[in-house]
Amino acid sequence: MAKYSQFKGRALLTLQTLFMVTIIFYPFAKNLNNLLAILGGFVFVLAFCIFSFAKKGLDSAFYPLPEPKNGAPLIISGIYSIVRHPMYVSFLIGGFGICMLKQNVILLLLLLGLFLILTAKYKYEDALLINKWERAVEYQQSTPALFPIFKKK
């Protein structure tokens, strides 16, 4: 793997981490709507469940960088048969839950930034997967990247 691709993967992971940490530690708004805060908590728990299923599905293939882990197989079963990047989905849903919980409009802008970073990261990761596994092309054509509602017909 070229040094450039390793740099790109690390840069995307660093940006992702910075945005996620900022979202988590950003202050609460004043005068919170309690119902919205409770719903946000449930949405965050849902995101944690999605992350747990995704992590379990990867098992020993888990690797935080977008580059495929050496010796790991292409995972296309379980939750990965529904969406290609369920961990990224969990980060976005969790971020939305935090937005609901903290009710600070700045967090929506940060969440949009996280979405753009994760989009760049999954596109980069998908290109690397195609270079490593021929069947990744068919998998990417038949399985939506993030949200099953946008599945190609």
Give an account of the 3D structure.
This protein has helices at residues 3-25, 34-58, 86-102, 105-132, 136-142. The chain is globular and about 55 Å long. The model has no long low-confidence stretch (mean pLDDT 91). The longest helix has 28 residues, at 105-132. It is mainly alpha-helical and 153 residues long. It contains 5 helices and no strands.
Structural class of the secondary structure composition?
mainly alpha
Helicity range = 55-70%
Q: Kindly report the average pLDDT value.
A: 91
β-strand amount: under 5%
What is the number of strand segments? Answer: 0
Please give the radius of gyration in angstroms: 16 Å
**Secondary-structure element order, as H and E?**
HHHHH
Count of separate DSSP helical elements? 5
Measured distance between first and last alpha carbons:
34 Å
Biggest β-sheet strands, sense, barrel:
none
Could you list the spans in which at least 5 consecutive residues all have pLDDT below 50?
A: none
In terms of quaternary structure, the protein is: single chain
Gross geometry:
globular
